[in-house]
Structure formats: C-alpha cells, structure tokens
C-alpha cells in the first residue's frame, strides 16, 4: 500500500521584504518567522510551499484561496476579525506597532484624515481615520521620514529600531497603535490542520525553541 502524501499548505510570510527581525528573505539568517514557520510545519508533519507575491497580489491571494495561510496579528483588524474564511492559530509571539516620527519633528496631535506612512498590502484596523501614504517596506518608511515625505509613519518597534540604526536616522516612537500577538491566519478550508499546528506551536514553546529564535534576533 503506497504511503499517503503529506498535506501541504501554501503560505506567504510578509508583503514587505524588509520586515526585520521577522522576515529577511535575502539573508542567510531569514528572520524570526523565516526560521519559525518551517520549524512549526516540520513539527506538525505538514509540507510547506512558500510563495512570494508582491503586496497587492498577496492580499488577493489570501482572500481568494491561492494561499492557505499568512502570519498576522488579530489586533491589526477591526474588532480582531480577519474575515469569515479565516481562523487563527495559537499565539506565536507578541508584537507592537507605533506611530513614529523624526526625533527632531514637533508634531501637533493627530487629526482626522492626517497623512500617515503605511506599508502597501498591510492591514490597519483604523485606516478609515487617516490618509494612507503607502510605501513598499519598513526601510522605505524610515527613508520617507528622513526625506520628510511624511511626518508620521506606522511601524513596528523592532523594525523601526533596526532600520533607524542601519540608515542613521533618529526616530521617535510617539504613540502605541496596536499591541497583540502574531498568529497563523489559516484559510478555513484547511481548518482540520489547525490542531496539528497548535500542537506544534505548544511543543516548540515547551522546548524553548520559539524563545531561542526570538532571542537570536532581538538580543544584541
């Protein structure tokens, strides 16, 4: 009797190519998610197929079933609701996102429909309250601040620190926008695999593997 083929999941880890330290696709050290997701799939005995789409294509692919999962925070969605066709895994790790500006900039309080630098293809639960100015990556957000193309951006604390240091730009984290947990957002057509994914996450936490990977990328 032939062996049954492993179930497969198609996934995309980031719409941005500079989401440090979470995902760095062009480096030997691929980032927290670049290491963690293959480990989870291996532990769950699920075959992973990584597909890399540009931002708009990634959004379309998730919404139309061309991808089986990505990694997001429920806090990024209004009422933490990502859509009827999705379910979330257990938490992988915490994540924070801030409004940020140049350290030298004196800003007035946020007003309705003010321009804010954002990442193309990223979700923001309240983007109906400000005017999105989309850029391709976290690196581009920090460069946009330095060139004064925008006064404010929305960016994670760890990517902000990395790119500010890398590019020599002094930025300030002004106000917390979201605080939540990164989770696997799974298409419900694959919901039968969620228990295996959650069991793998739990096992890797118990072994200290997740914290080991996080520490590798966040402790100098």
Structural summary, described in words:
This protein is α/β, with parallel strands linked by helices. The chain is built from six helices and eight strands. The chain has helices spanning 32-44, 55-63, 138-146, 157-167, 194-206, 209-218, and strands spanning 8-11, 47-50, 69-72, 86-102, 115-119, 131-135, 153-156, 171-187. The strands form three sheets. It has a four-stranded antiparallel sheet with strand order 3-8-4-7. Strand 1, helix 1 and strand 2 form a beta-alpha-beta unit. The protein is globular and about 60 Å long. The N and C termini lie far apart (52 Å).
Question: Top keywords for this entry?
Answer:
6 helices; two-stranded parallel ribbon
Concise structural overview:
This protein has six helices and eight strands. By secondary structure, it is an alpha/beta fold. It is globular and about 60 Å long.
The CA-CA distance between the termini, in Å, is 52 Å
Low-confidence stretches: none
Q: Tell me the total number of β-strands.
A: 8
Largest sheet, order of strands side by side?
3-8-4-7
Instruction: List the secondary-structure elements in sequence, H or E.
Output: EHEHEEEEHEHEHH
Radius of gyration: 18 Å
What proportion of the residues is helical, as a percent range? 25-40%
- Tell me the fraction of residues in β-strands, as a range: 25-35%
Instruction: Please summarize the sheet with the most strands.
Output: 4 strands, antiparallel
Nearest-integer average pLDDT: 93
- Class from secondary-structure proportions: alpha/beta
The count of helical stretches stands at: 6
């Amino acid at each position: 009797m032939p062996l049954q083929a492993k179930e497969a999941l198609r996934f995309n880890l980031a719409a941005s190519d500079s989401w440090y330290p979470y995902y760095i696709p062009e480096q030997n050290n691929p980032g927290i998610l670049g290491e963690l997701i293959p480990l989870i799939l291996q532990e769950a005995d699920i075959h992973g197929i990584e597909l890399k789409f540009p931002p708009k294509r990634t959004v379309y692919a998730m919404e139309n079933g061309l991808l089986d999962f990505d990694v997001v925070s429920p806090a990024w969605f209004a009422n933490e609701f990502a859509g009827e066709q999705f379910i979330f895994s257990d938490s992988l790790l915490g994540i924070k996102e801030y409004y940020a500006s140049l350290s030298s900039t004196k800003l007035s309080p946020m007003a309705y429909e003010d321009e804010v630098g954002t990442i193309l293809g990223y979700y923001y639960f309240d983007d109906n309250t400000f005017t999105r100015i989309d850029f391709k990556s976290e690196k581009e957000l920090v460069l946009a601040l330095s060139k004064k193309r925008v006064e404010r951006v929305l960016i994670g604390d760890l990517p902000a620190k990395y790119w500010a240091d890398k590019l020599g730009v002094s930025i300030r984290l002004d106000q917390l926008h979201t605080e939540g947990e990164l989770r696997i957002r799974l298409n419900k057509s694959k919901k039968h695999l969620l228990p295996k994914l959650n069991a793998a996450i739990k096992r890797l936490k118990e072994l200290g593997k997740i914290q080991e990977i996080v520490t590798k990328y966040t402790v100098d």
